[in-house]
Amino acid sequence: MKVIQLGDPILRQKAQPVAEITEELRSFIDEMFATMIEAEGVGLAAPQVGKSWRLFVLITEDNNRLVFINPQIVATSSELVAYEEGCLSIPKTYEKIMRPEKVTVQAQDEFGKKFLLEAEGLLARIIQHENDHLDGILYIDKGDADFKKKIEEQFAKRAERRELKNAQKKAKQAKIQAKIAKKEGNSLNA
Ligand SMILES: [Zn+2]
Predict the structure, then answer these.
(1) Cα–Cα distance list, 120 to 20, 23, 35, 93, 149 (Å)
(2) From the CA of 88, how far away is ligand 1's center (Å)?
(3) Total-model pTM
(4) Residue 77 C-alpha to ligand 1 middle, in angstroms?
(5) pLDDT in tens, 64-76
(6) How is domain 9-143 classified at the CATH fold level?
């Protein structure tokens, strides 16, 4: 799976509830874990890999893999704490973000079983970051406005360059194909 980067509209959409928890969805979840670990992340939300579904995965500090399907944060502590956050969709960018220290989240696991989890510290942080992805919210929305503007512009430029490169590649391929076609035409004429 490819991790989608800032600038892609899917990261700004409100994701849809997961209606059915199937074997296919469990394979998708396995791939999400593999992608997250490969990218050295600690959490990954479905919109980051191109599916606008209310689903995210994370790995805890003691190496437990947790799956959250149709999650809902039902309570947050009033105490806020700052912590430096990054995002696989905004690589090599970090900012200190204030969030509640504790959250209570309710969700379904990969077998559809409902659970309630009280989390604090890093786990609470990851849950909030990933849950935000399901509502099209990114951590840069919660930090400094100038920083957000700078990062968004930087990624928009990157996306433009990527598009230009792809267009050039396509044009080159078309040229090569045209050359091949011409040669074939010649050989038929000979
Ligand atoms: Zn993220």
Answers:
(1) 30, 31, 25, 24, 30
(2) 6
(3) 0.88
(4) 22
(5) 999 999 999 999 9
(6) Peptide Deformylase (3.90.45)
